Amino acid sequence: PSPPGPRTRGRRRSARGPLLPVVGGAGLRAQIPQRLPTLGARAGSACRHYFASRRAIGQFLGYLTGQKQRLLGERGGHKAGNRPELLEEYGFDTKYAGHMIRLGYQGIEYGKTGMLTLPMREEERQRVVDVRTGKVEFNDILTQVGEMEHELEYLIHGDSPLSEQPNRVAINYFLNCTYRTYWNAVDSMHG
Fold it and tell me: Please, where are the H alpha helices in 40-167?
């Protein structure tokens, strides 16, 4: 059976299919790109800039700061890391610290471009490997994390090309089209 259709009260059907809220002035249509892709990996990739925002940079910063606080034992009641062999050899969980550095690099890249490079760039990847394998002193790691936190703050409040918030109108339109395309495909297979 087909999924129940969306409610239509207070909405009008667009000539192109999806239901859009009725709004005054220029209307919602003016906020939605005319050729917004609707399904598949290419569509999601083409729409990624609708999701990118400074708000997400704040999520990277919060996660990075929380990781640092746990590593120092300032959060969660004890020092992070459940790898006794690393704690014994290096005095801290190097694998956890490597994760923290990776997170900082990715947050900064995201704040500058709205994207993540995978796999990581070689220089950054090598730094993470060096941290994970105990080649970087603990204080140097904390200094670098502090610098990363500062850069993320700067990107949030100043120098990022990203908008403050995701483009929720375009994202909802994209999702609406994606669901409808899927439901239509399912209906045609069973129907």
Answer: 40-46, 48-51, 54-72, 84-90, 94-113, 122-132, 138-154
